[in-house]
Amino acid sequence: MMGKLLSAEFMKIKRKGIWFLTVLGPIGVVAMQMVNYGVRKEYLFRQNDDRWGYYLDNIHSFTPLAIVLGIVILTSFMSSIENETNAWKQLMALPVSKMGVYLSKFTVLSVLLLISSVLLLLFTLAFGISLDLGGEIPYAGLLKYSFYPFFAALPVLALQLWAAAVSVNQGVPITLGILGVILTYAGYALPDWLIWKWPLLMNDWEEPLINVLLGGGAGLILYAAGMIDFVRRDVK
Amino acid sequence: MLTILKSEWFKLRKSNIIGILLAGPLIGLGAGIGADTAEAAGMMNEWYMILIYMNLPYAVLFLPLITGVLASFVCRYEHQAGGWKQLLALPVTRGKVFAAKYVLILLLVLFIQLFYLAAIAGAGLYKGIADPFPAAIVWKSILGGWIAAFPLVALQLWMSVWFKSFAAPFAVNVVFTLPSILAMNSEKVGPYYPWAQPFAMMYPATENGDIFFIPWEQLITVIGGFFLLFYLGGYFYFQRKAV
């Protein structure tokens, strides 16, 4: 059943601009550094002898914001498909379980975000090489900065999908998302327990892997809570 | 015109818009209370310090982003079940409907700015700031931020009339708002980038003789120019939109 639900979900997101946004996110993050390095390359090169590391840090200054806002937009899009035309009833009238529907939405979103992460890796690498930063290419760091934020942002994904799926008025989840992205933006000054800070990959132990593991754990809990709530609700 | 505005208000009254209006000022309040203003004590008026701390998350991200939510909000009923048809079947012109919705969003943004003013005062009182409250500067900041939102609201209303979902206009908004983090640091681009204007207009600069914190030319050409462009774009789009 899952396979069919997934192919139905992928069919529904065609020609809605969702794929476009999936590609635009990583392009935007790297394009921001193209402008940054285009305007003041010499200055940025002088900042740090580890030019690759510094470049990756610069890329990472926008990744968390882009991923949190991307989650807000995509989750709202995914639930608008049914929300706009009151199609939840029609969908649920099919021989599918509500859990399956919820899981398929979450899976599609994860796949889209993972594709974004892969593209981010490729674009970061390509622009980095074209900048002629010199020295060894830090593949480990590249992988870390491309994929860790996705895993660290899983709780935000679970929370936003929950909010978007149960809200008739999509203004509510989007406002929640704006509050979230502001917490990400100001995250460096905030305590570690806030899930919106996790994509920054900062914590008191200075070990980004903790954010990844926490993200997976808390993401699972929030996912389960959201799914249970969604299943118990009346279909409107 | 006034009657259309009134009916728009009725449509909004029973929705949970108040929660959305309070979200930003609460963020500001949090930033103000969490701000470490003690270092400025004695050197400069602590109110400036608290204003700068609160403006950073509020004016850079929140204010530009929330305009999109408000614009989608006031178009929500029309996008459901043929609402545009019902509304435009009434003896109203499309131009007036568009103007009424625009004015309504501006009023909502003004409410948010006034709540934010209360948040500034609240954060200052909580911290027990003894310096005199720089009323003129703070009012300039509040009203300046409001005026800076004019072109942003116009573009978002255009997008919200166009797209049915909340997500699409919001995506457009995000695409333009995020680069303002870079643009506001640049002396060359910052003054010309519409989404960086709320921050520029709310930043408490020292007296420069102008009414607001940015030069008159910038206010009229950038904010006024983009307002005209976006408002007319939305206006003419709405005139030709098939409902």
Quick structural summary:
With 236 residues, chain A is mainly alpha-helical.
What does this entry look like structurally?
- The complex is a heterodimer of chains A (236) and B (243).
- The longest helix of chain A has 34 residues.
- Chain A has one domain.
- The model of chain A has no long low-confidence stretch (mean pLDDT 91).
- With 236 residues, chain A is mainly α.
- Chain B is an all-alpha fold.
- Chain B has one domain.
- In chain B, 73% of the residues lie in helices and 0% in strands.
- Chain B is built from eleven helices and no strands.
- In chain B, α3 packs antiparallel against α8.
- The longest helix of chain B has 34 residues.
- The mean pLDDT of chain B is 88.
- The chains are: A mainly alpha (236), B mainly alpha (243).
- Chains A and B meet through α2, α4 and α9 of A and α2, α3 and α8 of B.
Features:
heterodimer, A: 236 residues, mainly alpha, 10 helices, B: 243 residues
Write the layout of secondary structure elements.
The complex is a heterodimer of chains A (236) and B (243).
Chain A: H1 2-12, H2 18-47, H3 51-60, H4 63-83, H5 88-93, H6 98-131, H7 139-152, H8 154-166, H9 171-185, H10 208-232
Helix pairs in contact in A: 1-6, 2-3, 2-4, 2-6, 4-8, 4-9, 6-7, 6-10, 7-10, 8-9, 8-10
Chain B: H1 2-13, H2 17-34, H3 46-74, H4 76-79, H5 83-89, H6 94-127, H7 135-162, H8 167-177, H9 180-183, H10 197-202, H11 216-240
Helix pairs in contact in B: 1-6, 2-3, 2-6, 3-6, 3-7, 3-8, 6-7, 6-11, 7-8, 7-11
